[in-house]
Amino acid sequence: MVIKHKVEGYDNFCEFMKNLKTDGEYVHVYFSGSKLPSGISWCEDCVRAHPVVEAAVDKIADPKSHFVYVEVGDRSTWKDMNCPFRKDSRTKLMVIPTLLRWGNPQRLEGEQCENPDLVEMLFTDE
Q1: Cα 27–Cα 9–Cα 111 angle in degrees, nearest 5
Q2: Which residues are part of the catalytic machinery?
C-alpha cells in the first residue's frame, strides 16, 4: 500500500522532505490549498482534482511509493508572489493544484490534475 503523508506549510514541508527515507521508491507530491474549517480546501480547482488524484493513488500508484499531500496555506499566503513554494527551485509552483514526481520532470498543473488519464500516466512509467 502507498505510504501517505500530510504536511502543512512550507517550513514543515522542507523539514519533512529532508528527513523522508525512501530507499529509492517513487515520491509523488500533491500541492493543494489549505483546508477551511469545513474540511474543504479554499481552492476550487484543488477540490475538483482531489478525488481524481486520490483514486489514482489508491488504485494505480506503486504500492511501495510515497504520496505527500502538502497544504500550501490559505488563499492570501498562496496569492503572495513571494510565497516560498513559488520561489523554491525544487517546487517552482505557479498554480495549485500541482502533482509531481519528486526529483523528476513529471508534473501536472491546474486542470491537468482533474484528468484521470494524465494522473494515471504520472503515477506509472508510461
Answers
A1: 60
A2: 43, 46
